[in-house]
Amino acid sequence: MKKSKPLILIVDDNSINIDLLVNTLKSDYRLGIAKNGPKALEYADKHLPGLILLDIMMPGMNGYEVCTRLKASSKTKEIPVIFITAMTESGHKTRGFEVGALDYITKPFHAAEVKARVKTHLALKEVHDREIYIASKIQKTLLLGRPPGDIPGIQIFQLTVASQKVDGDFYDFFKFDDQCFDLMVGDVMGKGVPAALLGAAMKSHFLRVLNEQLRLSCKKELPEPAQIVSSVHSGMIDHLEDLETFVTLCYARFDMLKYIFSFVDCGHMRTIHFHDGSNRCSLLQGVNMPLGFPEKEPFRQISVHFEPGDFFVFYSDGVTESKNKDGDLYGEKRLLDFVQANGRIEPENLIKKIWNDIVAFSHSEIFDDDVTCVLVKIDKDLSLPALTTESELEITSDLKELERVRAFIRGFCAGVKDYPLDEKRISTIELAVTEITANIIKHAYQSRSGETIQINAEVLADEIAIRFYDRGEQFDQESVPQPVFDGSREGGFGLHIIAHTVDEVLYSRDEQGRNCACLKIKL
After folding, report:
1. Distance in angstroms (rounded) separating the CA atoms of residues 482 and 491
2. Which residue, 155, 189, 185, 367, is CA-closest to 269?
3. What is the secondary structure of 80-94 as a DSSP string?
4. At what angle do helices 63-72 and 90-98 cross, to 10 degrees?
5. Phi, psi at residue 484, to the nearest 5°?
6. Which of 7, 96, 164, 370 has the fewest CB atoms found within 10 Å of its own CB?
7. Could you tell me the pTM of the whole model?
């Protein structure tokens, strides 16, 4: 197939200058013409020429402004710009280079000089593009893992579009057996080759740590995701601090035997969990800082239940931070609404439709950041052993954790399959859970920080049981005065709210010295 000639855009308001340049270049190149700045920007955005010859002195929008706008766009910033102008002062040349031009030709110009400079910069761009193309192929090998294709009942589809063809988004998969695998999705702060190299180093370190921990355990028991992330962070923190960068990450485990999805979120985008039974989505979020920040507290993992037909969507901020021409962001809500509206279509088609929606919103296929999306679908007809629906969450005694608790219980309720709960019922349960968690923090632990609260939510035959475990002071229900609603006394309102929003409340203390508060909600 014959290679087409490079496309050159000539931008000048003077017809004589345009004719001279056309006659000089027409035998070797395809040519486009724009007589003002706005037309030049429109043409460049639509046709992406290989090089632009740009006049400086034009009415309305001058060449400096045109070049600045070109370099500000992720779509056109890599196009080489050569200024052609009658202005010869060094200050004009300096400003031209400052706004992103690669070269400067003064009028009256010689045809041979124009040809030579155009040829040189096109050749340099071709070499650069070739190097980037090769680097992007290497990136895909180093940063983008291949999903396991032999796990019964699982479908995995992925999408990655790099902003500069080489970037720092990465993901990988670690299969343990036919019933368990881990997925890692990460994003290195920054762009280009340095970010890609750091992403490759992170992936390599995860694999090394995982193999080491499996060897030490003799593969009898898998290391927990939080344990893996903590070990990797300890090994990489000094390098990340030296480079003054960080990595957002979601490390997740799918346990097909127990219906459990466990994850450690380190500042990454919130994972979308689509619940097939209720046709609703919930957002899964952790509280860990990105890798590269000092580890003040142990990494915490969260476990949620899933059902056949459910799927999970992992993505980078390149998805939600894609912009349209007005500067509006695509956003998490648009993505969440789109996934929920299209949750019933085949997963391979869904991930394509997500990409098409991003492009339709942005009116572009070139973005300022990597666009990465991984979708994991549990087959609807998967035959799994019968288990109760159960999820667990562990938090510390800090009122800031209440947001996590609410998100956890909302996600759990959205996954109740046989007895779908409406929004009002979920909000009521969420209120009761918030009140009892706050009471444990304030009273059982006397507002001391750093203590642990474990929350277990379970669907039984005809009810939901939500249990709260703590090691604080034992609760004496009889010692709490009844609330007075005339404003004369504070206190007692939390218990009143709890008692009137659930069907039963039980308080106990086990042999290990743990307090247990159990809320029961009839289905």
Report:
1. 8
2. 185
3. -EEEEES---HHHHH
4. 20
5. -115, 130
6. 7
7. 0.63
In the chain, which residues fall in CATH 3.40.50.2300?
7-137
- Homologous superfamily (CATH) of 391-522 is Histidine kinase-like ATPase, C-terminal domain (3.30.565.10)
CATH of 7-137, one of 3.40.640.10, 3.10.20.90, 2.40.50.140, 3.40.50.2300: 3.40.50.2300
pLDDT tens, position by position, for the chain (523 residues)?
567 899 999 999 999 999 999 999 999 999 999 999 999 999 998 999 999 999 988 988 999 999 999 988 878 888 999 998 877 666 677 888 889 898 988 888 889 999 999 999 999 988 888 877 776 676 667 777 888 877 888 999 998 876 656 667 888 999 888 889 999 999 888 776 777 788 888 888 999 999 888 888 765 678 899 999 999 999 999 988 888 899 999 999 998 877 889 999 999 999 999 998 888 899 998 889 999 998 778 898 888 888 889 999 999 888 998 888 788 999 999 999 999 999 999 989 999 999 999 999 988 777 767 788 999 999 887 654 444 466 888 899 999 889 888 888 888 887 776 677 888 888 889 999 999 999 899 989 999 988 999 999 988 767 889 999 999 988 776 666 555 445 544 555 667 778 778 888 888 887 778 899 999 988 7
Instruction: Kindly give the interhelix angle for 192-216 and 111-143, rounded to the nearest 10 degrees.
Output: 10
Q: What is 144-384's CATH number? A: 3.60.40.10
Backbone angles phi, psi at 30, to 5 degrees: -80, 140
Q: Pick the closest to residue 458 from 303, 299, 226 (CA basis).
A: 303
